[in-house]
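Marked as duplicate of an earlier ticket. Keeping the data here for the record.
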Amino acid sequence: MGKLKVILVIFILAVALILKLHNYSIYPQRGATSDEYSYSFQGISLWTKHLPISWSAFTAYQHRYDLTINKIYFPIVYPYFDHTPLNGLLVGGWSILFGQDTFLKVDLKTVRLVPIILSMISAIFVFLLAKKLYGYKTGIFALLIYATATIFVINGRVVLAENLLTPLFLLAIYLFSLWSKNISYKKSILIGILCGLSFWTKELGIALFLAMSYLFMAEKAGLKKILIMAFVFLFFVALYVVYGFYFDKEVFLQILFLQSGRTIGPQTLNYILSTPIIVNKVFYDGWYFFGFISLFSSFLNYKKNKIVFIPAFFYLFALIFALTSGGEMGWYIIPLFPFMAIASASLLVEGFKQKNWYVFVMLLFAGLSEIKLLYEANFGLTAMQFRVQLLIMFAPFILLLLWKKEKWLNILSHAWFYLLIFGNILITYNYIHPA
């Protein structure tokens, strides 16, 4: 990769960091999800008291007390088992490092730096994975989408386990893409460790183990290597059981039972596909819909896209299997965002080369959402203005396709993509989370 190409990647990452840091301690507002505090409390208590303590709405806990911090009420319980401990240990350790070693001292301005760092690591792996699978241009397109789309950026600055789960997913998949033709026993162990760490981050991290097991079998890695990876993963699962039994076996099992009793059903898929959410507020970002369309489209070319859509499929399946069918909890989708960006970039670059109509899909979803979020939000929008803007967007493409002006079609397609990315930057930079 040449020096100019490296500079471009660094520049995009710098823009991504600016967008993530701008107003990061203000939006989303404190209390948009109190899970940010649950992880911080859990980690601080594990490091300082060697006991998991945090807040929970479950009534199965025998030990509890009330705590109010700056007008937010927390029912504190112990030993706490709502969440697996890895993200809490990371966030709590960071908090202690900055002198915030009690619940009362936790400051979002400090702890939100952790997911921002993690999401920047994810952005790097989005580029590396897309470049490895599809080439430099696709890597740049994927990075631009992932680094600027508002729903991706704002969800990436909140203290939630999914923001640790995402780079673990991407690291494991990127390593597999490098090693798929030469998987050794040591490499199998490392992949197993990443799967285990994903489970210790969140139970839904089991999706990574399922995806890697499938990919190992698809690449004919050999039964011994698959078993080694599985053994390492199951060792981490067993350690988590030991962790729960050590502190309180009865409560640990009760919480697992209560969490498995969520209201689920086929409507969960409809909810996921139709309701883009930033933390706790619906936000109709067209890149969310375009990303899902691109992911599902990638299923049509198994050989080319399996390393992208297999992990995405298993994680989506895990969500449908376990996720409650309602409620504003947008963070569950965070690990899918990189795969949505990569699939979108891949199909766009391919569409630009083949002069096909995929750019119309981008304009239909990302373009129309930006009309709403940029133009209508600032100037209002009459029916006539909307129709004129539709004609400006689509009519030139149709005419150029009819006249077979491939060069100008390519220029126009790229121009619209970069304009929409610039629109993302404006929307994200000026984002205000609804109270």
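See parent ticket for discussion. The chain has three domains: 33-111, 115-345, 356-429.
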